[in-house]
Amino acid sequence: MNFAGMESSLVSRIVQVFAGAADFTEIVVQLAVAAGAPHASAAQAQQAGPQTWTVTIGAAFSTTPGEKPNWYAMKFYPENLTIREGDTVVWKTNSGTEPHNVVFLGNEEFPQSPLPEPAADGTVRLLENPKVIFKQGGDTYDGTAYTGSGFMADGLPTPKEFKLTFPKAGSYDFLCTLHSSPGPDGKLSGMVGNITVVAAGADLPQTPAEVEQAAKAAIAADAQKANELTSHVQGMAMPATEGPNGTRVHHVMAGHMDMENKLEYQRFIPEQLTVSAGDTYGFRFGGSSNDNLVDPGTVEWTTHAFHTVTFGEEPEFITLETQNGQAKAYYNPVAVMPTGQKTHTGQGLYNSGILVAQLPPNAPPFMTDKFTLTFEAEGRYEYICAPHYPNGMDGTVIVQARAQTEPAARTSSSASA
C-alpha cells in the first residue's frame, strides 16, 4: 500500500479547496493485515441467528518502557470481514489518543475537508467537515446512505465504539478519512477495509471468536515489527550538511511512515539535537573538503507525513464551538499558520505551518515541505508537533555557546586542492 501516494492525494485535495483563493489572515487545515485463521467448522459457521463481530481500529505501540506509544498502526484488524445478513459489526478504538473514524460513503464521493468558511470580518476559517468529525447516519447500513462514526480517540468526548447492522447482502467498503485518500483513479488507499455480507444461511470462513483471535495475533505481530523497526528508524538521523555561504545546517525528520506495514513512527528524528551557534567546523561534504564552515545554529525540519514544528505554545489543533445550538469544529490558526521569523530570539511563537513530504503546485500559504529556524541565543528550546503532541511527539534543540577553538587543520587532500 503506497502511503506516499495517499499523503500526496490528501495534500492535493487541500490544494484544490484553496486553489485561486484570496489571502487569508485566519485560516487553518485539516490535518493521518489481519492474520490468517483456519476455516470454521460447519457447526460453528452455521450458528443460528444474528451474530456480532468486532473490528479493532488501529493500534498503538511503545518501544520504550514507561513512555507513551511512539508507533501507530494505521489499519483495521481485520481489514476484510465476511458476515451474514442481519449481523452486527462493532468497531472499537485501540489507538490511544490517535484519532480515527469509520466511514461508509454510500453513494457519495470522498468528503471534502477542510471547508473554508468566510467570516463577517472578511477572514476565512477552516471548518472540519461535519460528515468527518461527527456521527452520521443510523444504526444500519445497506450501501446507500453516507454513514460514519465521527472522530473516536482517548481524550475526546465521543464514544469509543461504533456499531452497525447489515440487513442486505453486498460488498461494502469502509475507511478512516483521516488516514486514507482516493487516488487519481478514484480507488481508495491507506486505512481502508471491506465488509462482505452473504445470505443469512450461507457458510462463513470464520467465527466471531476466530476473527478476534486473528486480530490479536496480527496486532502482536505489528508490535514486534515496530520493535524491529525502531533502531533502524532512529538511525535515519541525517548528518549536518553544507548550507548557503559556507554555513552548516542541521537536520531533523518529523516522523516516519513505514508504508509496507502501515506503521507510523510519531517522533522527531533525533528527538534532541545539540548545536553550537557560531562554531567553525572542518569536515567533508560529498568528497570535497571545507575546513571553515560556520555553524550559525540553523536547523531544518522535513517530513514523510503530516506534522507541524511549533515552538512557544502547546495549542489545541482542533477547537470546538457551539453556534446557534450547532456544534462546529475549527482548526486552530495558532497550530497551523506559519508564524514567526526565521531566527529564534529566545522567546515568542514560531510555527512551521503544515509540514508535508512534497509541496504541490499552488499550495496554500499554510503548507510547506521544510521549515528552517536559526537560533541566536544559548539555551534549551522545546517544541511539539501540534496534532500529535498528545501522542508524545515533541523535541528539543539545545544551543551551546560558541566554542573558542581554532578551525580544524586542513587535510593534505584539501591543502593540495
Structure, described:
Helices cover 14% and strands 39% of the residues. The strands form seven sheets. Strands 1, 2, 4, 9, 12, 13, 14, 16, 17, 22 and 26 form an eleven-stranded mixed sheet that branches. A five-stranded mixed sheet has the order 15-28-27-19-23. Strand 13 and strand 14 (263-269) form a beta hairpin. It has helices spanning 3-18, 42-45, 130-133, 208-234, 333-336, 412-416; strands spanning 52-61, 71-77, 80-84, 88-93, 103-104, 115-118, 124-127, 147-148, 161-165, 170-182, 188-198, 241-242, 247-258, 263-269, 272-276, 279-285, 288-303, 306-307, 310-311, 318-323, 326-331, 343-344, 350-351, 354-356, 367-368, 371-375, 379-384, 394-400. With 417 residues, the protein is mainly beta.
Short description:
With 417 residues, the protein is mostly beta strands. It has helices at residues 3-18, 42-45, 130-133, 208-234, 333-336, 412-416, and strands at residues 52-61, 71-77, 80-84, 88-93, 103-104, 115-118, 124-127, 147-148, 161-165, 170-182, 188-198, 241-242, 247-258, 263-269, 272-276, 279-285, 288-303, 306-307, 310-311, 318-323, 326-331, 343-344, 350-351, 354-356, 367-368, 371-375, 379-384, 394-400.
Radius of gyration: 25 Å
Individual helix count: 6
Name the shape in a single word: globular
Low-pLDDT windows of residues: 1-10, 20-45, 279-291, 405-417
- Percent helix, as a range, is 10-25%
Major sheet description = 11 strands, mixed
Number of strands: 28
The percentage of residues in β strands lies in 35-45%
User: Roughly what is the average pLDDT, rounded to an integer?
Assistant: 83
Intertermini distance: 48 Å
Q: Work out the oligomeric state of the chains in this entry.
A: single chain
Structural class category: mainly beta
